[in-house]
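Quick one, T. Sequence first:
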Amino acid sequence: MTFGEADEKSMMHKVGSDEKESFAMLDRALEAGINFVDTADVYGQDGLSERVFGAWIAERKARDKVVVATKGRFRMAPGPNGTGTSRMRITRAIDASLTRLGTDRIDLYQIHMQDLRTPEEELARALDDAARAGKIVYFGASNYAAYRLMESLWNADKRSLDRFVTLQAQYSLATRALEREHLPLCYRFGLGVLPWSPLASGLLTGKYRRGQAPPEGSRLAQWKERYKGFDTDRNWTIVEALVAVAEEIGKTPSQVALAWLLARPVVSSVIFGATTVAQLDENLGAADLTLSVEAMARLDAASAPELGYPYDMIKSIDGAW
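Structure tokens:
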């Protein structure tokens, strides 16, 4: 999401990385063993992130060294066919992403959010057709309600079509609502979970503290409304527990937050949007970090979400839901 310097029309204006820094991060990531890169047509503007990633792939001759993941669904053009997941729209979106990325295939194509205006059976057939044509290898969902994800899996099974194999969704110590329905569903049906915003837009890096304004130049200083949403007693309790654990084991809060996620059931990997090589290197420290049972329990307790009905009732009787 951070690849390229977006203009003022984009939410990534002034919080992204220019092409030189983006190339440096991709070089360092590949050197460190990261081979999965996730982008989307809507990141930046006019496919900026895809174009930067595609230019790096071409210059480094790296196509067969990386797993290329991208997404489509949000508006990229005016008119009724400029957004959504109709057969026409999603077919055009895949072709446009292939062109910007400069590749003959997308390894993981993800629907960026469910589309209430398009039946899941229409989308399932369009994605299956794209896979059979060799344009995409696998496909996944992102930002889906659990009922809609289950409906898509059922449609694919009923019609003997390829189905979603991953779910990319917001998941972190600060945002654990996914645990009510989505994680049990993914575990049951074998979908890998790819959390986005694992550091809650930087909240879990330790740079933000209770009662203090966001540091100048930080992402949440730019995204003021999002910061207001994060400014809650629960979130500051999480940050304080996270910082305490990090200090005790000599790691950074970012590394601890990422390691906590990597240890969760059905999480395949985490997707973070670094803006500098230094940030990337810090986050890489989470890959080999195994938190103790006691540290995990402290973080779980500090961030425990309110389950609500009927989950709390089921848990009180069965111990799980």
